[in-house]
Amino acid sequence: MSQLALNFAGYDQSNKHGVYVDCERLAMPRGKSRAAAEIRIAFVAEGFIFGVSVEMETEWMGGLPSDSCVKYGHVSPSRTDAIKRACDRIEGFCSKTKSKASAAIFAWINATKEAA
Hints:
Layout: H1 3-8, E1 24-27, E2 35-44, E3 47-56, E4 59-62, H2 67-71, H3 79-96, H4 102-115
Antiparallel strand pairs: 1-2, 2-3, 3-4
Helix pairs in contact: 3-4
C-alpha cells in the first residue's frame, strides 16, 4: 500500500526512522511513588503494535512502537490483545526488580487490563 493510501485508511504513520511517535498513549498517573509506566499503541496495516516505558526509582526500560515490531512479528490482532501483551511485558520487568514502587505499577496494570 502506498503511504497516501495508508493515511486515508486511518493507520498511524511512522517517522523517517520507522518509529511511531504520534500514536495512542496510555499512561500511569504520577503519584507520590517514584514510578511511571506507559503503553503506546500504533495501528498499522498488519494489526496493532505496542511499545512500553517503565521507570522505577533508578531502573528504566522503554521504547516506542516501530517498524521492527512488524518485521519480527510482534503484531497483535486487536487493540485489547496489544494492551494485555504490553501489560504482561511491564509485569515481567517489575517482577524482576526489588523496588517498592512496583506496587503502584501493578495496581495500574490491573486497572488497565480490566478497562481494555
